């Protein structure tokens, strides 16, 4: 029963990912991406990782995708952008890269076929993860917090608007740009 | 009760990773490239969680948390860069933006 659910969720994940990378409208692609992430969250629950599944929904499908939605709203991408995107996505542009990726995937599949079959029947509770996280991995947690702080400062610095040209002092523009 | 072979979990991760890689290669819009990068990071996280389930250890899930943090920081900086580039050039075409001069 669980195996059937796994394969259904896996099929949904693959189909929605294919649709996400081929759409011309950014908002549609984003919605398919959210579906893909949610089906991966279902897979996490099925293979006994409830904490990872919950975080996938909250952080990936929730927070990160909301950031994308905000940016799409700011860029105000409409029909003209979708038409331009259609021009950029020509057949000659995607055939060769897709073929090369297919070769890499075939190699991965071949390697994975070589090993003995092991079934996934673990159930790792959030408690176990939490104990490890604040025990041996405490330094990793601190590093993750530093990474997030750096990301916050970087995003704030890069994302703010330039001051209007008349308030800029002469000569500083070249220095800040370099 | 649970009879999902580990290869199938890893195969799904490999498939999603390849799809994300194709997305990075074929799209010229930076927004779509960032979305494809998210797909690739997510596939790597899936491989970690599958490994955690295989060896019944929580360490793989902790690595998944680290990947999640990395993805959040990466997407924040990437989208801020994207907004700034759109303000300066009024386009998201990577070929136009490839000169990297202010």
TrEMBL record, chain A:
It holds the Pfam family Oxidored_q3. It catalyses: a quinone + NADH + 5 H(+)(in) = a quinol + NAD(+) + 4 H(+)(out). Its main location: membrane. SUPFAM superfamilies: Cytochrome c oxidase subunit I-like. It is a multi-pass membrane protein. Keywords: Cell membrane, Membrane, NAD, Oxidoreductase, Quinone, Translocase, Transmembrane, Transmembrane helix. GO terms for cellular component: plasma membrane. It is found in: Cell membrane. Its EC number is 7.1.1.-. The keyword Flavoprotein does not apply. GO terms for molecular function: NADH dehydrogenase (ubiquinone) activity; oxidoreductase activity; quinone binding. It comes from the Bacteria. The chain crosses the membrane at residues 6-22, 29-51, 57-76, 88-111, 131-158. Composed of 13 different subunits. Subunits NuoA, H, J, K, L, M, N constitute the membrane sector of the complex. NCBIfam families: PRK06638.1-1. NDH-1 shuttles electrons from NADH, via FMN and iron-sulfur (Fe-S) centers, to quinones in the respiratory chain. Couples the redox reaction to proton translocation (for every two electrons transferred, four hydrogen ions are translocated across the cytoplasmic membrane), and thus conserves the redox energy in a proton gradient. PANTHER family: NADH-UBIQUINONE OXIDOREDUCTASE CHAIN 6. Belongs to the complex I subunit 6 family. This is NADH-quinone oxidoreductase subunit J. It comes from Exilibacterium tricleocarpae.
From TrEMBL, chain B:
It is a multi-pass membrane protein. It catalyses: a quinone + NADH + 5 H(+)(in) = a quinol + NAD(+) + 4 H(+)(out). The chain crosses the membrane at residues 6-26, 33-55, 61-83. InterPro entries: NADH_UbQ_OxRdtase_chain4L/K, NUOK/Mnh_C1-like. Keywords: Cell membrane, Membrane, NAD, Oxidoreductase, Quinone, Translocase, Transmembrane, Transmembrane helix, Transport, Ubiquinone. The keyword Nucleotide-binding does not apply. Signal peptide: none annotated. Gene3D superfamilies: 1.10.287.3510. One of its GO terms (biological process) is ATP synthesis coupled electron transport. It is an enzyme of class 7 (translocase). NDH-1 shuttles electrons from NADH, via FMN and iron-sulfur (Fe-S) centers, to quinones in the respiratory chain. The immediate electron acceptor for the enzyme in this species is believed to be ubiquinone. Couples the redox reaction to proton translocation (for every two electrons transferred, four hydrogen ions are translocated across the cytoplasmic membrane), and thus conserves the redox energy in a proton gradient. PANTHER family: NADH-UBIQUINONE OXIDOREDUCTASE CHAIN 4L, NADH-UBIQUINONE OXIDOREDUCTASE SUBUNIT ND4L. NDH-1 is composed of 14 different subunits. Subunits NuoA, H, J, K, L, M, N constitute the membrane sector of the complex. This is NADH-quinone oxidoreductase subunit K. It comes from Exilibacterium tricleocarpae.
């Amino acid at each position: 029963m669980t195996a059937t659910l796994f394969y259904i969720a896996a099929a949904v994940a693959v189909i929605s990912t294919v649709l996400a990378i081929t759409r011309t409208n950014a908002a549609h692609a984003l919605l398919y991406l959210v579906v893909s992430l949610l089906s991966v969250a279902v897979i996490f629950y099925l293979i006994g990782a409830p904490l990872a599944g919950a975080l996938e929904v909250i952080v990936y499908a929730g927070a990160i995708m909301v950031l994308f939605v905000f940016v799409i709203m700011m860029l105000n991408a409409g029909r003209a952008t979708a038409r331009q995107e259609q021009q950029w996505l020509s057949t000659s542009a995607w055939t060769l890269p897709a073929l090369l990726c297919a070769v890499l995937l075939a190699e991965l599949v071949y390697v994975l076929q070589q090993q003995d079959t092991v079934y996934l029947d673990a159930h790792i509770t959030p408690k176990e993860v939490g104990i490890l996280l604040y025990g041996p991995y405490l330094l990793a947690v601190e590093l993750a917090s530093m990474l997030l702080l750096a990301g916050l400062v970087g995003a704030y610095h890069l994302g703010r608007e330039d001051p209007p040209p008349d308030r800029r002092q002469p000569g500083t523009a070249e220095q800040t740009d370099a | 009760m649970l009879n999902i072979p580990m290869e199938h979990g890893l195969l799904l991760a490999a498939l999603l990773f390849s799809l994300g890689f194709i997305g990075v290669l074929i799209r010229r819009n930076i927004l779509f490239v960032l979305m494809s990068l998210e797909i690739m990071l997510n596939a790597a996280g899936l491989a970690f969680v599958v490994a955690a389930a295989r060896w019944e250890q929580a360490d793989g899930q902790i690595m998944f948390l680290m990947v999640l943090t990395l993805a959040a920081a990466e997407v924040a900086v990437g989208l801020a860069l994207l907004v700034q580039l759109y303000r300066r050039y009024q386009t998201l075409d990577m070929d136009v933006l490839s000169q990297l001069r202010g």
